[in-house]
Predict the 3D structure of the following.
Amino acid sequence: MLEEIGRLPRRVIDNLDSDVGNLKVYQVQDYNLKLLNRMVNFGQDIFGELGMDEWGLVPQIRHGNVFVLKEENRQRLIGFAILMREWENPNTAYLFDYAIIEEFQGQGLGYHFLVTICRNLVEQGFKSVTLTVDVNNPPAIKLYKEKLGFEIVEHRKDEYGKGHDRYIMELDLETFTK
């Protein structure tokens, strides 16, 4: 059901504002209804009505890459990521959803979660990762660009409707050495 692909460094966990145990990154291989509901609720808590529902999440689990960040031996999800293979460039993974719960934002978990995912993508044979980010989201842009090395490759005006501009960003996994 959940395959462990990595754990966050102890020094990161020890510096958190909250008392948590070992944080591990898992790739979701299969699901039961409890896990599916937790993932759906997590996404909707973060993204509101735009969060993934079970009708969208089940195909992502079956045919994409879904990752969760959670405490070992606990149920609560702390991070969530959904990636899919780009249709026109099968060596590229597209980061569709990515979030850390608000309580843990700004403490380095997003960085370490995404580094672990990128390492796994390299193991799977991917050559690059792309994503879109709101041009008015400086913390996310800083994470992707300054900390991880993503490049802004395009600025799309009104991508999700009038006034919803997005940057398209890309990371070359062949030079990713984090």
About this structure: The chain has one domain: 2-172. Strands lie at 2-7, 23-28, 65-71, 77-85, 92-100, 128-134, 151-156, 166-172. The two ends are 27 Å apart (CA to CA).
